[in-house]
Input
Amino acid sequence: MSYKIPESVLVVIYTPDLQVLLLERADRPGFWQSVTGSLDTLDEPLALTAAREVAEETGIIAGEHQLTDWGHAIQYDIYPQWRHRYAEGVTRNTEHWFGLRVADALPVTLAPREHLQYKWLRWQQAAQQCFSSSNADAIRQLAWRAAGAGAPGVTAATGSDAGRHAAVGGQP
Output
C-alpha cells in the first residue's frame, strides 16, 4: 500500500478585493476548506505541489496567476479518521501555506471525488466557514499580507515578512 507523505500545502485562493475560494469536501459534507494536498514524492518542490493541487482541485492553472509561498509552516495532529492514509505511527503533518491571487472570482472545475461545491466569500466569512482552525488562521493572515501589497480597503498590520516569500508564475 502507498501511504501519504505527512507534508502538505494549503493554498488560499483569493481575488484583489479579498474574496476567498472555499471548497466543500465530498467525504465530509459541510466541511469547507481551501485547496490542500500532500507531496507526491519526498523531493517534490512545495510550489509544484501547490500548483498541482490547485489544478487538480479547481482547474485553475497557477502559472497564469500569482502563486506566492508565504514562508510559513505549521504542524498539526492528523484527524483520527484520516490516519489510515499514512504509515503506521504517523500522527502529525507539516503544512506549508501559499496564496494564489487571481484577477476575479473565477468559475471552478471541481474534482467530484474530492469536492461537492465551491463558493467565493469575503475573507472574514471564509475564515468563519472553514472547519479547520489552521485554515481559518491562514485566511485571516491573508488580510495583513494583502495590506502589505496594497490591496484596496485593507489596513496594514504592523510588521511584515514580505521578504520571506517568492512569487511563482504570474506577476510579482
In short: Residues 150-172 have pLDDT under 50 and may be disordered. The first helix runs from residue 46 to 58. Residues 7-156 form a domain with the Nucleoside Triphosphate Pyrophosphohydrolase fold (CATH 3.90.79.10). The beta strands are 7-14, 19-25, 32-33, 35-38, 66-77, 92-101, 115-122, 167-168.
